[in-house]
Amino acid sequence: MTNLTPPEIDPPDGPAPEELQIVDITVGDGDEAQPGATVKIHYMGVEYDSGEEFDSSWSRGEPIEFPLPRLIPGWQQGVPGMKVGGRRKLVCPPALAYGPAGAGHRLSGRTLVFVIDLLGTR
Q: What's 9's DSSP letter?
């Protein structure tokens, strides 16, 4: 079963976590993503503090396919173990996202929340 609708991300409660948080929303029943795999995903990302969406494959109308080693550390740690058909929420502190404030990315220094649907892995 694959989610056919974009996720809704509830505003977080309390201070941003300092460690990666991994929460399965739906557990898939397909192949399991392995470290270093290439994954096909739909995702939405919002800033923890503001709740504002900063990126979404749903908004573009098509999933993306990427090798995990090319993605942020929070995804490299948080996607392996997911099964195709699953939906998972990752809360990535700055060190596992785009680095500390001033690191050169517009999202540097920010805790980010992603909801990821795993559509395929190889």
A: -
Residue 6, in any domain of the structure: no
Q: What is the per-residue pLDDT across 53-97, written as a single tens digit (0 to 9) for each?
A: 999 999 999 999 999 999 999 999 999 999 999 999 999 999 999
Domain count, the chain: 1
CA 68 to each of CA 50, 64, 75, 100: distance values in angstroms, whole numbers, following the listed order = 27, 12, 7, 21
Query: Three-class SS of residue 110?
Result: coil
**pLDDT tens digit sequence for 94-106:** 999 999 999 999 9
| Prediction pTM value | 0.94
Beta strands in 1-122 (DSSP E): 21-26, 38-47, 53-56, 64-67, 87-92, 112-121
